[in-house]
Amino acid sequence: MNEHNPKTITIQGAGVMGLTCAYVLAEAFPETEITVIDPAGFPADNASRMAGGMLAPYCECDHLPPAYIPAGLESIAFWREFSDKTGASFEFAQEGSLILAHAEDRHMLERLRAVLPPENAGTPVDLTQTEPLLAERFKNGLLIEGEAHLHPRKTMETLVQAVYEKNVTLAEKEGANRAPDLRIDARGLGAQDDQPGLRGVKGEILIVRNPDFSLKRPVRLMHPRYPLYIVPREGNIFMIGATIIESADDHVSLRSGLELMSALYSLHPTFAHAEVVEMKAGVRPAYADNLPRISREGETIRANGLFRHGFLLAPAMAACVRDMIKGNDNAQIRLFNKENSHENHPQRRRKTA
Ligand SMILES: Cc1cc2nc3c(=O)[nH]c(=O)nc-3n(C[C@H](O)[C@H](O)[C@H](O)COP(=O)(O)OP(=O)(O)OC[C@H]3O[C@@H](n4cnc5c(N)ncnc54)[C@H](O)[C@@H]3O)c2cc1C
């Protein structure tokens, strides 16, 4: 095989990491036979299908250091182009994010403004103009421009279709053929067997239908006990999430259900009558520092640990994987290698700031 142009690539895992890799690699290596393996099928019921779908590199500054903002913006550009190219509606929209706090928690907005990067530290907005229904209960709001959102389940279905149309083979198990020239390990939590540092972090979500409410963009409610985000979907559907619990079990606890519902009801009184469509939990793959990694060992490239940022970072990481194979420079690669991601960890930065 030509080192920079493998004849065969096998990708393990059809989450957002594996499928964006399949899509980006199929475009970059049209002559290469690419296979995606996932025992859970296509689309698989995995962490990716459970996500909120927020593409929020600025609002995530508590969880993701500012060094990752360019990678987040690159991914937003990828999803916009993917939406244009496929013509499929997976509800991609770039309307920014709105951050709210009840009057007694206003100091939390000030704290957030202090940690947001100065180039996009949020604009105070008049809610009667921006999201009029929220003006009934809230006075203070900050708009973070440039952020986007999408519908993860529809996006995963579109990705499956798009890679299939690019002649990528989709299979539930690997054939007995000879080993591929290159293997991409994107198994998420399935890689725990040989990635001992990988752990599961549970996220519980609630999906409701409320015909008396509407939103243009995701809203984050700053709350000392129950921080919450709400992502609008078509048909007056709203996804509310998500808890962050150190556990790999995937059931929704009574307490989390109550907290999500109370926080939602505090947003607007019409949620009292909302129809509960679904309550579910997903488990995010994460390393100890909650930062994603790409590593190479011989003919295996691993891309994992996307924690809260699968949709936000997978396209930028897939571009890094492509450029690693091609031997091209990519300004983001440094971000995803183990030593440097440790250097970027938010708590480490705070200590040294
Ligand atoms: C509640 C919740 C809300 C979230 N909200 C957001 C959000 O708003 N924005 C955002 O960007 N991210 C969000 N995330 C994070 C995002 O969902 C994850 O980071 C992302 O799904 C991880 O993708 P992945 O492809 O690495 O893993 P997964 O989606 O888990 O996919 C891994 C796949 O590998 C397969 N697999 C396992 N073992 C094998 C094997 N041996 N061979 C082949 N395949 C195998 C599995 O079946 C699975 O399909 C959220 C996550 C949760 C749980």
Question: What's the structural blueprint in terms of helices and strands?
Answer:
Elements: E1 8-12, H1 16-28, E2 33-37, H2 47-50, E3 54-55, H3 69-86, E4 97-101, H4 106-115, E5 123-124, H5 127-130, E6 140-144, E7 148-149, H6 152-165, E8 169-171, E9 182-185, E10 199-209, E11 219-222, E12 228-233, E13 237-241, H7 254-265, E14 275-286, E15 293-297, E16 300-304, H8 310-326, H9 338-343, H10 346-352
Parallel strand pairs: 1-2, 1-9, 2-8, 4-11, 9-16
Antiparallel strand pairs: 3-7, 4-6, 5-6, 10-13, 10-14, 11-12, 12-13, 15-16
Helix pairs in contact: 1-6, 1-8, 3-8
Bound molecules: flavin-adenine dinucleotide.
Flavin-adenine dinucleotide (FAD) is lined by residues 12-18, 37-40, 44, 46-48, 50-54, 186-190, 203, 205, 241-242, 282, 284-285, 304, 306-312.
Structure, described:
By secondary structure, the chain is α/β, with parallel strands linked by helices. The protein folds into two domains: 8-88 and 150-189 and 288-352, FAD/NAD(P)-binding domain (3-Layer(bba) Sandwich), CATH 3.50.50.60; 97-145 and 199-286, D-Amino Acid Oxidase, subunit A, domain 2 (D-Amino Acid Oxidase, Chain A, domain 2, 2-Layer Sandwich). Helices cover 30% and strands 23% of the residues. The protein contains ten helices and 16 strands. Bound molecules: flavin-adenine dinucleotide. Flavin-adenine dinucleotide (FAD) is lined by residues 12-18, 37-40, 44, 46-48, 50-54, 186-190, 203, 205, 241-242, 282, 284-285, 304, 306-312.
